[in-house]
Amino acid sequence: MKIGVLTSSRADYGIYLPLLQKIKEDSFFELEIIAFGTHLSRSHGYTLSSIEKDGYTTIHTISSLISNDDEQTISSSYGITVMKFADFWQNHHYDLVFCLGDRFEMSAAVQAGIPFGVSFAHLHGGETTLGAIDNVYRHQISLASKLHFTATEVFSEKLKNVMGGSDGVFTVGSLSLNDIKTFRPIEKETFYDAFSILDEEFALVTFHSETMAAQENIQFAQAMKKALAIISKDLFVIITMPNADTQGSIYREAILQLKNENENRILLIENFGKANYFSAMYYCKLLIGNTSSGILEAASFGKYVVNVGDRQKGRAQSENIINCPFTEIDIIQAAKKAVKLDKYIGSNIYFKEDVADNITKILKESI
Q1: Using CA atoms, how far apart are residues 86 and 337, in angstroms rounded to an integer?
Q2: Per-residue b/e over 37-55, b at no fewer than 16 CB within 10 Å?
Q3: Sheet holding 120-123, edge to edge
Q4: What per-residue confidence (pLDDT) applies to 45?
Q5: Structural domains in the chain?
Q6: Residue 267 C-beta-side C-alpha neighbours within 13 Å
């Protein structure tokens, strides 16, 4: 069975990893990676190099992003991605192609495959993020897909409503948590030395733009910057840099200013990689931001999350999430609340056993 895997960013590649390993090791499958989006962007860490190190037999690369991130540029990048993938689908054929999540580049690649009858399998469909335009892209991808692997029963039910039926919908859990029970962090001293992390408690921070709030993003980015400056007085702050979203550069510039003004209290990371990121989550005191990782994964590490603003609004949450408005004072107060809490000992609604094994089993049964 010839499998293609679309990966457009460090985030989706990290989620795919357990499944990629299973497919690569199984002679039933022939695996090809299709890398595009920010993987080929020097300003986002050129994460294609990480994929190449993992030793796949075939890696296709497609460059289509324009460097700016205003609305016109994002729309133009979408169109260029569609055109380049029109050529790709014309010349490359698969039994099934995996796609994941809700990025605009992912949507463009999938939409280009519709006239060619490409069979897509979508991971993380049926979810809701009312504060991000990604909500639209996610449903577009789902509608173009043949198989659907969702993270919770709630999302499966939502997806069935979108699709108008239940054919091909499977609730498997979050793939990123596939190996969480056997995960062992990088040894603390080694990890801290590798990234020059101060030997004290730290907050792990990831902020992206609120793509449904274009008029407020400058205000939000400044609120983020001011809040983190205050928080950094008591906690060392490690920030993973924003994605290539609409107006993402507004947050990137505010973060760089924050670093310049608080040189010794802020660490910026362009690309951690999954092992380092999970190790950072393991050792951190809390998470702050508006990323899906805080919603999907942090509960499995016993961490509380300050979830800021509306980007993740509507996404199902475990009980470790502290939601707050996108203001300086609210972020600071929510962080103070989280710092006082002990380790989170509740469940993670996104966890299920043997996700990668169950997906490959379903693939074989679908032939």
Answers
A1: 50
A2: bbbbbeebbebbebbeeee
A3: 59-61, 30-35, 2-7, 96-100, 120-123, 147-150, 169-171
A4: 67
A5: 2-173+352-365 (3.40.50.2000), 181-340 (3.40.50.2000)
A6: 19
Q: Residue 174's pLDDT is what?
A: 95
Biggest CA-to-CA distance, the chain: 58
How far separated are the first and last CA of the chain, in Å rounded? Answer: 9
Tens of pLDDT along 291-321? 989 999 999 999 999 999 988 888 889 999 9
Q: How far apart are CA 254 and CA 237, in angstroms?
A: 14
Instruction: Give the pLDDT band (50/70/90) at residue 243.
Output: confident
Pairing of strands 147-150, 169-171: parallel
Query: Is the pLDDT reported for residue 100 higher than 90?
Result: yes
135 pLDDT band (50/70/90 cuts)? confident
C-beta separation of 325 from 343 below 8 A:
no
3-state secondary structure the chain: CEEEEEECCHHHHHHHHHHHHHHHHCCCCEEEEEECHHHHCHHHCCCHHHHHHCCCCCEEECCCCCCCCCHHHHHHHHHHHHHHHHHHHHHCCCCEEEEECCCHHHHHHHHHHCCCCCCEEEECCCCCCCCCCHHHHHHHHHHCCCEEEECCHHHHHHHHHHHCCCCCEEECCCHHHCCHHHCCCCCHHHHHHHHCCCCCCEEEEECCCCCCCHHHHHHHHHHHHHHHHHHCCCCEEEEECCCCCCCHHHHHHHHHHHHHHCCCCEEEECCCCHHHHHHHHHHCCEEEECCHHHHHCHHHHCCCEEEECCCCCCCCCCCCEEEECCCHHHHHHHHHHHHHCCCCCCCCCCCCCCHHHHHHHHHHHCC
Q: Please write the tens of the pLDDT for every residue from 161-194.
A: 988 999 999 999 999 999 999 999 999 999 999 9
